[in-house]
Amino acid sequence: MGKIRVKSTYEIITEESSKEGDFAESGWLNEEGEIFNSAEQVIRHLSDEGVIEPSSSCFHKGVWYSTEAQQDMNTGAYKSQSYHLHGATLHQERKIYKRLFPQYGDCSRNRRK
C-alpha cells in the first residue's frame, strides 16, 4: 500500500466572527502534509494531536478529523485544527475512522441499493 499524507488546516473564531457565522481566519498549517507509511502510524499521529471528532458521524471516504478549539487567553479567540488524509485507500481510511471513533458507524453499509 502507498504512503498516506496528512495535511493540516486551522480555523480561528472570534466573538465578532461567531456573530457572523464565519471564521475570523482559516488556512493551511501544513499544506504539504506529513507522510506516514501505515494506517497505524496515522492513528497514533491523530491521537497525539488530540483529535476529538470526525467531520461526519457516518464513515465515507474523505472524512477529516478535528481537535477541540483552544482559547487564546489574551485575545479570547478559539483555534481548532483539522487533519485531512490524502493517498489513503478506502480500507485504510475506514480502519483509521473505526479505530479513532468506534462509537460511529459505516452508514454506507446500511444504504439501500
Helix percentage range? 10-25%
Span between termini:
30 Å
Strand content: 35-45%
Unreliable segments of 5+ consecutive residues:
none
Structural class: alpha+beta
Q: Any overview of this molecule?
A:
With 113 residues, the chain is an alpha+beta fold. It has one domain (4-108). 25% of the residues lie in helices and 35% in strands. It has three helices and six strands, in the order E-H-E-H-E-E-E-E-H. It has helices at 15-20, 39-49, 90-100; strands at residues 4-13, 25-36, 51-54, 65-67, 70-71, 78-86. Strands 1, 2, 3, 4, 5 and 6 form a six-stranded antiparallel β-sheet that branches. A hairpin with a 6-residue loop joins strand 5 (70-71) and strand 6. Helix 2 packs parallel to helix 3 (90-100). The longest helix has 11 residues, at 39-49. It is globular, with a radius of gyration of 15 Å. The two termini are 30 Å apart. The mean pLDDT is 93.
Structure, briefly:
The protein has 113 residues and is α+β, with helices and mostly antiparallel strands. It is built from three helices and six strands.
Could you name the key traits of this structure?
113 residues; alpha+beta
Write the layout of secondary structure elements.
Layout: E1 4-13, H1 15-20, E2 25-36, H2 39-49, E3 51-54, E4 65-67, E5 70-71, E6 78-86, H3 90-100
Antiparallel strand pairs: 1-2, 1-6, 3-4, 4-6, 5-6
